[in-house]
Design brief:
- The chain is an alpha+beta fold.
- The protein has a single domain, classed as Alpha-Beta Complex (Nucleoside Triphosphate Pyrophosphohydrolase).
- It has helices at about 45-60, 115-120, 125-135, and strands spanning about 1-15, 20-25, 30-35, 35-40, 65-75, 80-90, 105-115.
- Strands 1, 2, 3, 4, 5, 6 and 7 form a 7-stranded mixed β-sheet that branches.
- The longest helix is centred in the middle third of the chain and has 13 residues, at about 45-60.
């Protein structure tokens, strides 16, 4: 089975205590779900480089600071096994969010929400856990 290393960002505006969620088409459930920013690591990229690239590609944020790795998990979605490294990323909700609208990602909305709201809105348990572990 092919292994796909990936990164995920728990983006938080610490001053406002708000977390950024994106509404993205979920290929497993075939519906739109609230998610964290996530993507694959390209050949030759470090996790941190991939994280910054994915954040810029998916939501257009450039004023971010990687605070550190907070969680790891893996799952199988045939034909691949995904190994996810999750990072806490400091963002600024005053910065304009520009969503990526590609056929592959299908991101159609975003929200800055409280920690409790984020945990309620997220569907996947590992994404909920990543938010719970953020400080």
């Amino acid at each position: 089975m092919k292994v796909r290393p990936s990164i995920q960002a728990v983006i938080v505006d610490e001053k406002e205590k708000k977390f950024l969620l994106i509404k993205q088409f979920d290929k497993r459930k075939k519906i739109y779900l609230w998610r964290l920013v996530k993507g694959g690591i390209e050949k030759g990229e470090s996790e941190e480089q991939a994280l910054k690239r994915e954040i810029q590609e998916e939501v257009g944020l450039k004023d971010t600071e990687i605070a550190g790795k907070i969680y790891n998990y893996e799952y199988i979605f045939p034909p691949q096994k995904f190994i996810i490294s999750t990072y806490l990323v400091k963002g600024n909700m005053k910065e304009k969010v520009v969503l990526e609208f590609t056929d592959e990602d299908k991101i159609k909305d975003y929200k800055w929400v409280s920690k409790n709201q984020a945990i309620k809105m997220l569907y996947w348990k590992d994404e909920k856990q990543a938010v719970r572990l953020s400080k």
